[in-house]
Amino acid sequence: MRVRLLHTFIFLLGVFxxxxxxxxxxxxxxxxxxxxxxxxLADDQLEGRRAGTNGExxxxxxxxxxxxxxxxxxxxxDGFFQAFDINDGKKINDDSYFSINKKELNKxxxxxxxxxxxxxxxxxxxxxSLQESDMPWFLNLKEILEENKDNPHFDLDEFIRTKSxxxxxxxxxxxIVYNTSAIDDKLHFEEKDRTETMxxxxxxxxxxxxxxxxxxxxxxxxxxxxxxxxxxxxxGHNVAGYIDNNAANTVIxxxxxxxxxxxxxxxxxxxxxxxxxxxGADDNAxxxxxxxxxxxxxxxxxxxxxxxxFIAFSGExxxxxxxxxxxxxxxxxxxxxxxMINMDMVGRFSDSTHALTxxxxxxxxxxxxxxxxxxxxxxxxxxxxxxxxGPSDHTSFYRKDxxxxxxxxxxxxxYHRPTDDADKINYTGExxxxxxxxxxxxxxxxxxxxxxxxxxxxTQTTSSARFSVTLGIMPDYTFTGTGVRCDxxxxxxxxxxxxxxxxDIIVQLGGNNITSLENYMQALGKFKKGDKTKVKFKxxxxxxxxDVQF
Length: 550
Ligand SMILES: [Zn+2]
Fold this sequence. Notes:
Blueprint: H1 2-19, H2 25-41, H3 54-70, E1 73-74, E2 81-92, E3 97-100, E4 103-104, E5 111-113, E6 121-124, E7 136-140, H4 142-147, H5 156-169, E8 174-178, E9 202-205, H6 207-213, E10 223-226, E11 229-243, E12 250-256, H7 281-299, E13 307-313, H8 321-328, E14 337-343, E15 355-359, H9 367-373, E16 381-385, H10 394-398, E17 404-408, H11 427-447, E18 473-475, E19 484-489, H12 494-497, E20 505-509, E21 512-513, H13 517-524, E22 532-539, E23 542-549
Parallel strand pairs: 7-8, 8-9, 12-13, 12-14, 14-17, 15-16
Antiparallel strand pairs: 1-11, 2-11, 3-4, 3-10, 5-9, 6-10, 11-13, 15-17, 18-19, 19-20, 20-21, 20-22, 22-23
Bound molecules: zinc ion.
């Protein structure tokens, strides 16, 4: 009994000593810096740092200024910055034009060309009710809508597409759709549409102009059309700073600095529809702050046997756009990269559980010792995840066969909501995470070896309540072609059993044409566990069909 009391007493003493460990001046400075960085990056002024916006510009300038003051060398494509395109779908260019009987229609209110329209001009005097070759054809949706008003599976977009392809085949020079029924067709210009472009313009005319011009079905109309559909683009920017120790290998440390803005890109968890700034203090101003302070620590360290590259990625919230762009357009030789450490949400450390998730544990045999040996008196309750993939930027480096580690203090109720604010960050807890990573890097540099890489299982990154089954693929969020490109295939899942491989482009699932991630997810929602169907995919120039069971 007594012995046990003594042990408990010694243990409590140890915990107290640890907690009461007097923070040195230098440590307090780091904590103050972390707070300064997070407060600035999560300020309303930066409007949630959405990629390609003014908020991103303010953030990237702040980060590059800090990198410069620490003495890092610029290692972007243009100084510290590396710009990359973000394809935001399609848009109607201003030079689009449509007139009926010499009256121009307004492209905001009176009509819109479907996103899959050809970019061309047509002038003709067709009869509304005739479907002659070499003439524009018209389609009133009234009948089909009334026929299917109680049919939840009726896909109007698919119907219009099929009808326009038929008309095109039969020689129509344009296809003009309208709706005189009382049913709301909810048709709108679909920015994210990635269906194959037609050879003719396909337009939708809204109710009022339709009533005005298409009332008399025997009428002949004077039609002038110019359709001009363009790509909507934003420019994102990675920020990269370098410590050149003239060494053979380089360690990459990264964190994304972009966030959701006002939630425009659809990954906000706010369900009220309000237009609010998502400040992203934990996601991921915390990781960005840790990145800056690690750069300062390592710049002032005695380590000389490795170079360091610090990268603040943008476009992560859109699907790892920035890190994917970097590994495809690296500013250093990727072969010389020893390993990559990623920090995403390290600001909400729990002082009660001391839980810290470390992902990528299985991507090098070197990790297990280092992670344990660097954990000060087991301060952290480390939860390891062996997979090299996951919902953050280390995945892009793992896919290039680079050992990775991912640090994360855990989810919370403010995740992807406007309430993820700077006053909820545990700065001392974050400082301890920074110290831990600094110790891991320092200990590894003492071993002075290039780490071996090991492949791991791929974790499913897309989780949504909208569907109960998955194929077991990792979609490529940056793919802008028609279909869904596979960036990775999960072990033992339906896709692997069906023979799908990384790089394949899924174009059909059962009876559903797959043109984009959106309708891929909709199609998945139609299947349940055990269902059998066919998947069609493109591999190079071949189109392959395979049986698949969920
Ligand atoms: Zn994040």
